[in-house]
């Protein structure tokens, strides 16, 4: 089998230099799946590199005017010494994208003839075909600590599922707007599989809202170190689009391969009134404290912040930042985290 894989690689390998990137891209086809491999500037055979495997690889690379241009983001992070040099493997989706990415038996999605999910087939492709071939061809760190898997939407759901269920292969997962809602939030049931030291990034935009905040607490209840190993970002006004994902693309790379400490420089508090995506007239009311770090990392505090209501007769704030007002009086809240604090006033008229 090893010899066969080598033959597949050699027959389809194409390398190009990009005028708008100092890195290089190789293009492969592995078992009928298109794979793009970014290698960093100054790639050398004399060192081993961490690797990020990325679902929806067909979206990642290309000219900045027409695509996400991940290679430009990576070049910048590396040149500014914000992350280690690394390799990114973009695994392209095909017409079976949804079926291959969704690991749960949700009746909305097609199953294999034996009743199983196509995600098991896709996982086998990654861990038994793609990862070994990348390890053979490139200078990689060939253990879980040197591998991460990222994705968008269904691809983000798949990424976290892969890390939880293949911990010997991946030590980090990132889900941009991950579809945790599948099969009534079955992803939340994966939290007990968390292993110490695994790193997780997940986020959601308020223009595509789903209530993912409890996942942070579930992971913490299973020994995860929130804001050290597990990070959540709630992005005001962001939608389920590649344009919005591109704006926060650097975040999980700073977590997986960052070279500097995540030193907090400021805290801001967003007051959010979020319309429900499924129930007309329903609104989610939230205080969203977001910290910014010196290296550029941003994340929401949710349960980790403290919310002190100054005038409790006007309303209350729950432990994760959700609030309610009792009447027409404005609610005043002091939000604190470590040495940072900010007083906010929630105007009752915002709820009208």
Automatic annotation (TrEMBL):
<dbReference type="Pfam" id="PF00756">
    <property type="entry name" value="Esterase"/>
</dbReference>
<dbReference type="GO" id="GO:0016787">
    <property type="term" value="F:hydrolase activity"/>
</dbReference>
<protein>
    <submittedName>
        <fullName>Predicted hydrolase of the alpha/beta superfamily</fullName>
    </submittedName>
</protein>
<keyword id="KW-0378">Hydrolase</keyword>
<dbReference type="InterPro" id="IPR000801">
    <property type="entry name" value="Esterase-like"/>
</dbReference>
<dbReference type="InterPro" id="IPR050583">
    <property type="entry name" value="Mycobacterial_A85_antigen"/>
</dbReference>
<dbReference type="InterPro" id="IPR029058">
    <property type="entry name" value="AB_hydrolase_fold"/>
</dbReference>
